[in-house]
Structure formats: C-alpha cells, structure tokens
Batch of 4 targets.
Target 1
Amino acid sequence: MRLLFYTAGSNAESWLEALRRVLPEAHIDGWPSALAGEADYALVWKPPVELLRALGQVKAIFNLGAGVDSVPDVFALPPDVRLVRLEDAGMAEQMAEYVSHAVLRRYREFDAYAEQQRLSEWRQRPRRPKSEFIVGILGLGVLGTAVATALAPFGFPLRAWSRTHKLLSGVATSTGMSELDGFLAGVRLLVCLLPLTSQTQGLLDRARLSRLPQGAYVVNVSRGGLLIDDDLLVLLDNDRLAGATLDVFRDEPLPPEHRFWHHPRVTLTPHVSAVTLVEESVAQIAAKIRCLEAGRPITGVVGREYGY
C-alpha cells in the first residue's frame, strides 16, 4: 500500500513519524519527489493543483483538517474518488473550551471589569438575566454539537441553525435559508461554526448581522470568509454590535495593517480555537484506510455538492 503525503504546514516530520508508526505496512512518499500516479491514498493539506492533477486512480484523498476549502478544484477531482475530511480528532473538545470561554467572558462582562481595573474603578455591575442571553450557534455538525453540549449546563437559552434539519435536546433548532433571519433575531451572542462553501461565503454581511439585536456579540471560529470584515467594523463603530471574538480571517496571517488588530471591541486569536492534533488525526486516518482496504464503509466522506 502506497501513501502520498503533502502538507503546506511546517510540521511534516511530525505527521510522517506518526504515520510510519501507526501504518508500518504502508510505503509513504512525499510530494513532489514521489510519483503521484502510483499512490493508493493521498494525505494532503493545502495541496497544489499540480499534485491533484497528477494523482492516478487513488482509493481516497484524506484532507488533513476538518474544512476542505483548503483543497483546490474539489469539483475537478474524479467523481468516484472519495474526499475524506477529519472528524473531531481532538478538535471538538478544544472548540468547546474556546467557545465556552468566549461566551462566559461576554456574559460575565470580564472585558468591562478589565477596563475598570485599568481605571482603578471599584464598581459591581448589575447582572443581566441569563434567560435573556440567548446563544445562537450557526452550524450543528460535530463541532457545533460539541459546543452546544458544553454550553448546556450553564443554563443559557440555546438556538442552532443548520442547512438540513437536525434535533438536539435542549436546543431550539432552525433549518434552511428561509429560517435564518428568524434564527438571528433575539440572539445575544452568535457563534459561527459553518463550513466555508459557495453558499456560506460572505453569509454574515451587514444585512444579516443587523438582524441581531442591539448590542449583540459575534464569535467566529469557523472560516474568515463567512464574514464581511468591513460590514462588521461598521456595526461595531456605530455601536450596533457590542463586540466580536475572532479566531479566523480571510487572510491568514492577519495583515498587520488590518483594523481588527487594534479595534477596542475586537478580541482576536491566531486560528487556535481547534488546532489539528497529529496523533489523534493519524489514528483516525489509519482506521479509515484499514476499513477501506477491508471493503467496509467509512464516515467523513465529503459531499461535493455541498462542500463538506
């Protein structure tokens, strides 16, 4: 069994070491030194188009991440070749931690107390009713479900919106574009966990963000392309929205001249909400390869018509 490996990241040796340990029966080649046409499986992160075009009749292409927007020309791949994304692989727990922190920081007004400390001001702020602090989750896949489950014990009213109908205990769910505006109305803190597709690109523009109530807060931990930066900035500048926690951006690294860096109402982190864990990811990929070799079905196969 021959594996073709490529990553645009800086941790190639960590991946290769783990792959050789978990799949000792496999012969692993790196691009561009290897002949892509001889590979049985391709394991890639942000591959060049030339690599994909050189692939022969591989049994599957494994994307070394949850979002396949990093794979160029998805629709140009042979239709009978499976494109497989990572599922969880340690990311759900990280995402639940990150979002729970962002929600609690906003609800308990720790940013306001930090400003009061800077001013040496001792003042207890009135507590807002938790029943009025509706948390809305855009996207109810593996990560969205993990976030909703983590937030449930805190007692916030929870809403979730997804492309297809889904049910989750304790969460009011909405489905489809016709229900999106109604979902946004009343949400005090919006968490974006949607994949980046042709349908979600630029989804959170000024019109949709304005559906949120006055003083709402936005947390984006999925992809920067879902959000129109300038529209968010306008709503922050005119006090329509109270603030935002952003972990993902259209251009990464975020350019030093971008206003997000120094905006008083923006908290940002460098795409760390749920990093890919190599050991967990390799274990998942190895298990799926062995299933395919044995003729058994696997999960995580991307529906190309939807982009995830």
Target 2
Amino acid sequence: MIRYLPLLALPALAACAPATESPPQSPGGAPAAAYMALGTEPGWTLEITPDRLNYDGDYGATKIMVPNPGAKPSPNGERYMTERLTVDITRGECSDGMSDRRYRDTVTLTADGKTVKGCGGGILPPTDLAGTIWTFVSIGGVAVAADRPTSLQFDGTRLIGSAGCNRFSGNYTHADRTLTADALIATEMACPGAGMTQENTFFALMRGPVSLSFPTDGTLILTGAEGRTAVLKRVI
C-alpha cells in the first residue's frame, strides 16, 4: 500500500557565508578544538590542536606528534614549522580527490622530507543537491535509532529516502532559493519502536517550508517552520 504525503517546499541552497579569520591554532574558520586535513595516495590525516600537530601518514605507517609551534603568516594562509613537520595552509577551494567533497583550504605537508598534498578546513556546501546521498544523524533533536537504516537521496529530479521505517519518493525542482517536491509517495508499514516515531517527526517537519544549512563539518541541517530539525551526514 502507498500513501501520499503533503507537498514539500524547501529553501534552496544558501550561499556560503565568508569565513572569518581564525586564530593561529585553528585555521580555516571559526575557533575550533582542532583543525583537520587529509590527503590520498598515500592516505594521510593531520590534526592541529592548540598544543600539538598530530600526523598519521602512509595509511597509518607513519605517525608524528610534535608540539604546536604556532602559525606564522604566509601568502594567503599560514605555515607551521617544526623539525619533522612543515605544514602550509593556503586559502583556496580543494577537492579530496576521492569524491566531489570540497574543502576551504589546500594543504601541503612535508613529513621527514616527504611532501604530500591534500585538503583541510571547513567542508563547503555541495554545488548541487542532485547526485548527493545523506543519512540521518538526528530527527527532532533525537539521535536516530542505530538499528533503523535511513537515507535521503537527491537522484536527478527525484527525492528518495527513508526516515527509519517506510520508503518515500517524489519529484522535486528548485528555483529562487526554494526546492519544491511533488506529493511524496510512501509505503505504509508499521514499524515498532523508535523507527515509526522518528519517521513521524520527520514527516511533520517536512509539511511546510524547510530551510537548509551546511555547517563546516559537512552536515546538512533541515529546519522546519516550527523549529524542528533533522541533521544529516553525507554519504556521497
């Protein structure tokens, strides 16, 4: 059995607000506990905290942890220099090379004489929702049930997903900062426990206009007219 849900209207992607200048230990956006960077081939990650530089390179084979010397200004960015690590952070859009995720900064790192390149700082919003897939982190301020798979997929002009129980879908278009979906078609199954509760909360959120925001951690936040929210993390 299927059921039709009310029309869905969402504001389209908002423009990314310009980031403010950061303190030396937290480049790339508003002050944060740690600045993260990553690269591929070979895989590596870098964490910059107010106290330390923590580098994990060569797919985990190389580990370097040194005190944070503080950042020095460099052209369009900053530099960290220690005996074993040199990190150059440059403001400029960067792709991680493995997906279409875009980051605010380009990062060049030299560890024990070996130089690698990658991305860091805040994650930028996708240029288009079409082709992106997300999973729910929380709905209505409550973490989604771990045993209830969820998804929200923007497949061309169709919106497809599950909020923890039934599958729903419908056509959508977006213009003038508004994304509008046709009446959504959903299966009609009864799910025990949290699955049905979180689904009902999500459908209630989607009954009216919903704003989209993209924090720099890469999540997507849907906010309804009554202040209900759904937080999602990107899969693709």
Target 3
Amino acid sequence: MTLKALVKMLVPPIVLGLYRRIRGPFYIWDGIYTSFQDVPSFGAGFNSDDYAIPRLNDTRRAIQIASNYRCVPTELVEEDALLPLVASLVRRNTEDVLRILDFGGGAGISFVHLKSGLVGDMELDYHVVELEWACRMGPQLFENDHGIHFHRSLPELMEPLDIVFMKGVLMSIEDYAGLLKRLCAYRARYFVFVNLAAGLFRTFASSQKNLPGVLPHWFFNFDEIVGIMTSQGYSLIFKGALLERYRQENLPAAYRLDGGRACTVLFELQTARGDRSKTSPS
C-alpha cells in the first residue's frame, strides 16, 4: 500500500477536504512543450506497480460483475459502450469470427465490456498490445477464455481485423503518426478512439502528473489526426465527447480542450468492401 493510500484511510474526509481547499485544485497536466523530449519527466509511470495493480484489480472486479449481472450489464456505461456498440453492428456482416486489436488495452477490461454488451454467441479473436505487466498477468485473468490474446508488440495476423480500438493511449506515444500508420496497415474496417485529447489548438506536449512520476502527454490538433487517418484510406464518420470534464485553468485558454472534454471518434476504411488482404503492419 502506498503512503498516499494509507493517509486517505487514516485521515477523516473532512480534514482531507479542508486540506484540498487550502492547497487549491489539482491539475492533471502542466506546461506547453513542443516535443516529448522537452517535458521534464521522471518515474516508472505506466510500468510501475502503483499503476498496474489497480488496473488488474479493476479488471478482476469487472470480470466478477459481468459474470453475475441479472439483465443489464451495469458496468457497461458511457464511453465503455462504444466498442460493443460498433462491434454489434460489424458482426451483422461477419460470418464467423469478430477480430479486434486493442492497443494499450491494459489487462483486458474492454474485452470484458465487449462480451457483456454483445447479444448471442459470437466467436471473438481479441488481441491486446500492452506492456510487460499486462502480458504477464492478463492471461491469468482469462485462463479459461481462449478468445483474448496478449502481445508485447504488434502481432502478425493471418486474417483481416474488423476493429482497431484505442482508449486513452495515443497521447502517450511519442511517434503517434508512425504508430497510426502501422496500425492502419492492418486494414481494419473501423478505428475506434476513446478519450482522445484533441482540439483546434496546434499539437503540443504537456506533463502528466496523475501517474507514479511525471510523463509527457500529447494534446493533438484534431485536423492533424483526421489528416493522418485520411491519408491511410480512412474517413471520419462519428465524433463525440466524454462526459468527464478536465480542469485546465492552468493552461492558456487557446490550448484547452473544448468544454474540458476529450473526444471519441470513429473512422471507417473506405475500401472496407474491397481488398483487405493486408493484415499486418509493415
């Protein structure tokens, strides 16, 4: 248990509330930088136990709840519902297996939500690309489920993908344009982005401070992301926003997210009904 967690357990909530008011608001991001290298960063971040263990526990909890819900999957709310919704429409044109690549999918919690939302029997071929901790522990969480697979790098796939899914991860990739192009090489029918920090500002980096340590974090020019995807044969067919509002008063007004909200976007491959024979990134 971390010192911070211990303090929360021992100190009365009224005292914590008073301390937070005196200290002032906490901002997740700070600073405007041109590149990742310019951001002062330190710590293990996504590789630390303080980050990994809560994600593993969240996935265990989701598995337990999903196996016992009575009628409606009560954990399938807000942005977590988008992937199952898109997948349910895609499966209407899929005869055998629904294939999805989840880049940065943690311990597989979105796979749990997907199975909760789909109605009827459907064979799933779900690939999570993640860090070492997830690839080591994830298979243990799903030891009796052969529909999910974990990879430390982009896998070679023998069949075309139906969906590439990215939730809150692109902002942590230094060469985001290169990654998107490699993912587009799979020629998936759809790209689903959830929690994408994008707006009309120029692309910039900031320091993310709600992790173990401080890491660089991109804020994207929305049109730049659309342009990258368009150049790879994809068209934007949906855009929306997350419910959560982020506090960004510490950033210049021109660099803040619209309404303090990250976005959700959906792209479709324009040749989806044509040749999708290329199934692995070059």
Target 4
Amino acid sequence: MLLPIGLRGVLVASFFAAFLSTLSTQLNWGASYLLNDGYKRFLKPKASERHYLVVARLLPWILAVGAMAVAYVNRSIGASFTLILNLTAGVGPVYLLRWFWWRINPWSEIAAMSASLPMLWLRPYALQWLGLLEGSITHLGFMVLATALVWLPVTLLTAPSDSRTLQEFYARVQPPGWWSHFSSKAKQPIAWRAVLWQWALGTYALLATTVAPLAIWFGSKPIGWALGLSALVAWVWMWRKNGGLMRTGEAG
C-alpha cells in the first residue's frame, strides 16, 4: 500500500519517537531497579543520598554500553527473544506465586534469576542424560523445574518478608491462596471470581482495541470491525458494571 509522502514522514517520526521513548524507559527503569533493589539494599544500605544520586547517574550509561555490546554481537532478533524467554522462564513462577503464597520473599526472586543462566548452560546435557527430546516445551519446562529446585529451598531457608508489610499487602489486595496467617484479620473477603472475569474481559478489550484499527487498515475489514464492536461492548459493560467509576473519578 502506497502512502503519501507526508504520512510516511509522520510514521517514521513516530517510529523513532517510540523507539527513543522505549529505550529511555528501559534504561531509567533498569537503573532504578539496580539501585533501589540491588545496590542500595544489599551493597550500600547506609550511604548518603548524594552517593546514590551519583550511582543513579552512572547506571544508565553502564546499561547502555552493555546493551550496545549485546546488539553488536547479536545476529538474530528471534534468537534473542528465545534466549530472554528461556532466561525468564524460571523466575516467572516466582512472580506469579508471590500473589498467592505469603512465603515468597526477595531471595526467592534473586535465587531464580541467579540460577537461570547456569541451568541454561546445563540444559543440553541434562536433557540428553534424561533422554528427552529437544524442543520449545521441554526447554521451557526444564528451566521452570530446574530453577525451582534452587529458589524453592532458598525460600524456605530464608526469612519471610516483614509481617507488618505482608499484613498491609493482604489488607489492600486480599489475594487468594496461602494467606491463612493474615486472612483472619481482613475485614471482608474480595469476590475474586468477579474480579478475574473483569480482568480477562479488560485484557481482551485492550487487545481488540489495539488490533481492530490495524486489521481494518491492512484490509481485514470484517475481522477489524468485529473486534472493534466487541471491544466497544466490553468497554461499555465494564463501565456500567463499575457504576461509571471512570466518569466520576472514583476508580482509584
């Protein structure tokens, strides 16, 4: 499809704006994560604010240099995506279980992250020794189970998070699962079935709203209009179900 010159310029400018915005976001987010959750918590917990400010200014440059080095040696976006997927497969259950099990603590996440790379190196030999075929399912399954053999004992052998913090979290969120230590102090349980239903519907509405105009633009008009109409129905249903919270400003 041929586009007018002006529209091409807008698309190119939008692409670079989105690229730079994503790049700066990842650098700032990564620096904040490394400083507050790593450096400040475990390496220098009692340093001055000026010291933390200097480190915060240096970390984005270190991350940028590392990113350029990875980009230089990278030969395939698909291979990079697969590598990231395998490296994060082990920590995924920790991110999920921390909503359902009060015993998950920061050391659980650190152990899962630390074990991912060694398990990735050991995976070919382990699969061969176990007699399992190479494949996406076996690769991801091995990473999940192998890293669990590390982070689960670490979780049970290290101290849980502060009881007051856990109680405040449960009072706000009231998550389902293994929270019996704190559920007795909650005022009123949340109807999680309705909440999860609205979450699923909201996720669909967001995806359909994003894909619908693209489908119409690239020629799949029936699919695009169907997605757009269903997304509109989902948005209206959620708005009415929540009593017009978006209009009254009470959603927060």
